[in-house]
Amino acid sequence: MTASDPVITHETRKRLAVGYGAFYDDRPLPRGHPLAPATWFETATGDGSIASNPADMAAYLRMLMNRGQGPCGRLLSEEGFDLLTQRVIRLGDEWHSGFSGFYGYGLAIEERDGHTVIGHGGGMVGYRSQILADMDDGLGVVVLINKQPEEPGEVAYFALQLLRVALHDGELPELPPVADPTRVENAADYTGTYRAGGKTLTLAADGERLILCWGGRHIVLEQRGPDQFYVSHSDFSLFPLRFGRTEGQVVEVFLGPDWYVNERHTGPTTFDYPREWSAYPGHYRSHNPWLSNFRIVLRKGALAFIVPSGAEEPLVPLDHGVFRVGEEERCPERICFDTILNGQAVHANLSCGHYGEWRGHHTAHNAD
Questions:
Q1: Mean pLDDT score, 283-291
Q2: Strand duo 192-196 + 199-206: pairing
């Protein structure tokens, strides 16, 4: 693999395709969102630091399909290959490369269409990649793209299907269907009026479309996950609508720091929390190209950590003013806030990364 660099330097950059990322780095992205050249930086980290080309990645994948055997001898022992591909951890839906099986000591493994498939996704700021190997048919796929945050998993799986067709002289499969994000099978679940103080959200269903009535407009929402929707309107640009349920019924909706409830909500509407928490909500930024910014909101007496995509985690208080990011005890990320000026924290430390509060620019930024 003579064309691959294990450390990304300025010399590497001379032969790289330009990587692209989203123009807006602080909000959920609309379909067809505008792109901009991604942030460039040198790195030698253990993840995302290999720059390669299709020929070298094909050589690497061929070695894996041969269970560690290279053209000039064995690179991995049988025992080592078995460790790479053993079924250790079951993967959840959040696995970015689209696998739904297991993870070993470095590779994902699943059974798909009666075949054992191994592979892994890769990423760097402005770039994404995917390798797949069908261990039964001896077929491999490498996909490299210079665009983030797109994921190449679906393209790789379809390419693998096409290779199987060519190998077995089968019929070409249909192109994968293009999902319609405006189609909401359970749109009626969310209909009704939701209120937060003097503000009101009204939602209606039109067949399998969920409609937000806002400012005299009827806005079709796009589903972005279970009980989560994107709203194509500047008033809703920074956060998705996230609905909450009680005993299966939708009773509330969150929009960043705002909490709306409907007539089905029967729980408390006021909450106690430590006074010092009032200083922590805000928009925090750093020069970290992987996570350039996040928001902290105080809602229902609890703090929440929200990343630009709209995904959020609760902040769980630990000792000495430190919070765990995430409900589960195994979550490793920690955050604390300091330098309180005029009742506002102007600095946050996220797992040793330094972020400054961005409130001074917040009003102008929202005007986009």
A1: 94
A2: antiparallel
